[in-house]
């Protein structure tokens, strides 16, 4: 039996738990603590610090400790929530910047890492500590997330788990996990056979409210509400600001002061849950040293919380209204998250629902991890993680997918000794910092021993599936029956021996917010309204067309409340349908959509009378802004290659085509095989260089031929050599040589008499039929007259014709014949 680790990946604290003999048990970390602070840092030598070690280093090493990374995971830099979260960070938080792909990067030591990579480092440490405590390897995990997390955040957490060495068997909403832990069952504690339960989850960084219905073998999530930027970290920030106000004009800008003030605020918040007054001492303080002491009263703290308490109550009332429930309809209110210890929070809930309904049965700090372990016991099957495979219902005992052989166990990993990001064992070099990892090997946990419940043998390996003596099952992976005490197989919600109900079951989930398709006008066609139970059947979307010219059709799915503007929501993923024959006019679009058990959108579509196609959305961290820029550049490349098809050298074509492949991938939201740092700038520079070199070469060659008699022979020779030098560099696609030769040709061209330059170019364009017929005839007549004047040596006549050609050139501006332009870009669906 492959063990599954339940993980509450929290904003401020993280907890792990597993099913041991059918009962959820929290696994302590290496220091013996049940919770590990979700903090990472490095010491002065670059060694990794996690948890309390990191927090304790903040005063000595300001700006080195990452906290609250969960608020940034899976988000874009230009996301309004990201900017709000950055304002609430501790004053001594490490630098954060926009990455090349438009997401977020945080500095850890000497390297900037993504929130996914930072979370993977934390998950890797949680995995190591859990394995040491349990004495068994954990290659699968159930990880919890806020119920109000959107698809990009869920996917990012899954990716962090994969990097840490897990196969992530399930991502579970935190309120659902908490309800598992409380184990509300029929007939007990004055709860009716079917109970309506409200989960109030107030953690360190997020706030969720879930309305549930539970009964014998039944567990459904009816409504969701929440705020991804409301939690204990915000309360810390309020007290931090209050303490700074109390300091008045006192200097508090010394090294480590920001950390000490923030830590004092956090301690005061915790103490005020059990005391009326919290004494605060800040020492040393300021650049000159010294100290300050003061006090924070609970009444003052609760005054600071008034706006947040109001927001919480409004969210609760909104969820009740959407679920068509009144406070008296709620049988039990479950408190989850450390911030529910705050008396004002509990008091507000008791005022609304009644004291007897607010449950304190399970420690709010541990409930979510307990529930994640219970969820692991309820898992009877797995889905294949491969994008191209549709196999479902794989037994949890399987090591790999029977359809495509994709592994269903996490890969053993090693920690990079420089940047600390986990990498698969036997990776040659770290993908982040290029450190040599070839000699590193993953270490197995020290094996623990298990006692057989049947025969009493005490030295069975904890990883063994059956007793070495009597073959009795050991760690069947399921839940322990509360009636007969039997440990069941995984995937059961009632005892296989006595039939007793376990008090929980696999949950039927609902979407938190609308999921919809972006249309050409920027609005959203809602596919699944918020509150839709999933998985769903296929749903037909009527009255859609593809309108406009393009080479492809884009399907882009967004999640959020803003139906009038797709871009204001969370981007979930996209798919691009290529049309080799292009698109013209208005073509009907038939579309089917459904949600699978993992809340992923699947599409089937048919354009016009064509065949039906399936679409698996591509999740991407490439921002839509970067995608649009890449698409615009791709269009310019396409125009350039089409316009100058016959005049481009093979080396230029190869270089431009290579860049176009990356631009096309970015435009579709696909990853590219190289760093995005400077990619778009480099693409622009390459196209501009090729454009300038082609123009400089052409102008110099035209001037060398058309300037006979108008320019000195020595200058004509220089122009010819300059044109040849540019061409030689273009044939080799030697960027440095192209720049130098282009600059020389441009200098010669701009040094010519402006009237001569205009005449030469105007004549050349007329000879290429670039002007309307009447104007072209006039220009060619002026050309012949100019040549005649040159042959006669008549300077006055030459000047007259140069002036005439200048006037004709001005007249011809805007009348250049339009060439056929290629169809480029992609289009979004439209309403009929």
Instruction: State Rg.
Output: 34 Å
Distance between the termini: 54 Å
Summarize the main sheet.
Answer: 6 strands, mixed
Strand content: 15-25%
**Low confidence ranges:** 184-191, 817-824
Shape: elongated
In DSSP terms (H or I, runs of 4 or more residues), the helix count works out at: 19
| Mean pLDDT over all positions | 87
Number of strands: 38
Fraction of helical residues = 25-40%
Class by alpha and beta content: alpha+beta
Structure explained in plain terms:
- By secondary structure, the chain is an alpha+beta fold.
- Among the domains are: 232-308, Alpha-Beta Complex (Actin, Chain A, domain 4), CATH 3.90.640; 511-619, Substrate Binding Domain Of DNAk, Chain A, domain 1, CATH 2.60.34.10; 621-752, no CATH class; 754-822, no CATH class.
- The chain is built from 19 helices and 38 strands.
- The strands form 12 sheets. Strands 1, 2, 3, 4, 10 and 11 form a 6-stranded mixed β-sheet that branches. It has a 5-stranded mixed β-sheet with strand order 14-13-12-17-18, sandwiched between helices. Strands 28, 29, 32, 33 and 37 form a 5-stranded mixed β-sheet that branches.
- Strand 10, helix 4 and strand 11 (167-173) form a beta-alpha-beta unit.
- Helix 14 packs antiparallel against helix 15 (713-732), helix 17 (754-767) packs across helix 18 and helix 17 (754-767) crosses helix 19.
- The longest helix has 28 residues, at 679-706.
- The chain is elongated and about 115 Å long.
- Keywords: ATP-binding, Chaperone, Metal-binding, Nucleotide-binding, Phosphoprotein, Stress response, Zinc, Zinc-finger.
- This is RanBP2-type domain-containing protein.
- Residues 448-473, 477-501 form the RanBP2-type domain.
């Amino acid at each position: 039996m492959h063990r599954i680790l339940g993980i509450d990946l929290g904003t401020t604290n993280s907890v792990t738990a597993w099913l041991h003999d059918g009962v959820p048990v929290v696994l302590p970390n290496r220091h013996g603590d049940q919770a590990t602070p979700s903090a990472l840092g490095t010491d002065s030598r670059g060694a990794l610090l996690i948890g309390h070690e990191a927090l304790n280093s903040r005063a000595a090493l300001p700006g080195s400790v990452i906290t609250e990374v969960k608020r940034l995971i899976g988000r874009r830099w230009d996301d309004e929530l990201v900017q709000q979260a950055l304002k609430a960070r501790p004053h001594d938080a490490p630098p954060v910047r926009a990455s090349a792909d438009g997401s977020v990067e945080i500095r850890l030591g000497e390297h900037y890492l993504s929130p996914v990579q930072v979370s993977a480092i934390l998950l890797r440490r949680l995995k190591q500590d859990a394995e040491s405590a349990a004495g068994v390897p954990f290659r699968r995990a159930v990880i919890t997330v806020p119920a109000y997390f959107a698809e990009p955040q869920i996917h990012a957490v899954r990716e962090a788990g994969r990097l840490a060495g897990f196969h992530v068997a399930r991502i579970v909403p935190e309120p659902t996990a908490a309800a598992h832990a409380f184990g509300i069952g029929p007939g007990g504690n004055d709860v009716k056979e079917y109970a309506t339960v409200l989960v109030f989850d107030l953690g360190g960084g997020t706030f969720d409210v879930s309305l549930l219905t539970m009964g014998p073998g039944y567990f459904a999530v009816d409504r969701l509400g929440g705020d991804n930027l409301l939690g204990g970290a915000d309360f810390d920030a309020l007290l931090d600001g209050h303490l700074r106000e109390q300091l008045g004009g006192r200097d508090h800008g010394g090294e480590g002061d920001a950390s000490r003030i923030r830590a004092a605020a956090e301690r005061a918040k915790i103490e005020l849950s059990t005391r009326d007054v919290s004494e605060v001492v800040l020492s040393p303080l300021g650049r000159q040293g010294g100290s300050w002491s003061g006090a924070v009263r609970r009444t003052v703290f609760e005054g600071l919380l008034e706006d947040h308490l109001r927001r919480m109550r409004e969210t609760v009332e909104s969820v009740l209204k959407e679920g068509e429930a009144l406070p008296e309809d709620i049988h039990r209110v479950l408190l989850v998250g450390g911030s529910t210890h705050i008396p004002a929070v509990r008091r507000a809930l008791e005022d609304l629902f009644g004291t007897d309904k607010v449950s304190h049965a399970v420690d709010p700090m541990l409930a979510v991890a307990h529930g994640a372990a219970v969820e692991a016991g309820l898992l009877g099957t797995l889905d294949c993680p491969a994008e191209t495979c549709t196999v479902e219902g794989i037994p949890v005992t399987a090591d790999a997918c029977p359809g495509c052989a994709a592994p269903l166990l996490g890969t053993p990993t090693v920690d990079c000794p420089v940047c600390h990001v986990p990498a698969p064992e036997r990776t040659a070099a770290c993908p982040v910092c290029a450190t040599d990892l070839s000699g590193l090997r993953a270490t197995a946990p020290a094996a623990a021993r298990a006692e057989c419940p049947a025969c009493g043998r005490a030295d069975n390996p904890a990883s063994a599936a059956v007793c070495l003596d009597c073959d009795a099952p050991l760690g069947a992976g399921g839940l322990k029956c509360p009636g007969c005490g039997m440990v069941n197989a995984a995937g059961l919600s009632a005892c296989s021996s006595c039939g007793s109900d376990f008090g929980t079951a696999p949950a039927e989930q609902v979407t938190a917010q609308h999921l919809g398709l972006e249309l050409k006008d920027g609005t959203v066609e809602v596919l699944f309204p918020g509150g839709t139970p999933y998985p769903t059947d296929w749903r037909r979307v009527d009255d859609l067309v593809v309108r406009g010219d393009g080479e492809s059709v884009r399907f882009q799915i967004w999640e959020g409340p803003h139906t009038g503007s797709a871009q204001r929501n969370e981007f979930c993923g996209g798919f691009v349908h290529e049309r080799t024959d292009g698109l013209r006019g208005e073509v009907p679009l038939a579309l089917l959509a459904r949600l699978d058990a993992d809340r992923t959108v699947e599409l089937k579509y048919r354009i016009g009378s064509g065949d039906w196609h399936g679409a698996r959305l591509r999740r991407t961290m490439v921002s839509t802004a970067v995608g649009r820029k890449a698409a615009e550049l791709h269009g310019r490349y396409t125009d350039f290659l089409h316009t100058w098809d016959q005049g481009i050298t093979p080396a230029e074509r190869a270089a431009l085509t290579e860049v176009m492949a990356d631009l096309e991938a970015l435009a579709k939201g696909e990853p590219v095989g190289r760093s995005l740092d400077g990619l778009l700038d480099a693409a622009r520079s390459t196209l501009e260089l090729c454009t300038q070199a082609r123009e400089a070469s052409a102008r110099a060659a035209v001037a060398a031929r058309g300037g006979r008699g108008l320019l000195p022979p020595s200058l004509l020779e220089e122009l010819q050599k300059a044109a040849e030098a540019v061409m030689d560099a273009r044939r080799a696609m030697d960027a440095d040589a192209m720049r130098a030769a282009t600059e020389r040709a441009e200098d010669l061209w701009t040094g010519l008499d402006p009237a001569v330059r205009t005449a030469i170019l105007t004549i050349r364009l007329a000879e290429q039929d670039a002007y309307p017929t009447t104007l072209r005839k006039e220009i060619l007549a002026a050309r012949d007259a100019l040549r005649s004047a040159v042959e006669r040596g008549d300077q006055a006549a030459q000047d007259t014709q140069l002036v005439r050609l200048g006037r004709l050139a001005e007249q011809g501006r805007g009348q250049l014949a339009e060439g056929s332009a290629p169809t480029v870009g992609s289009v979004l669906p439209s309403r009929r």
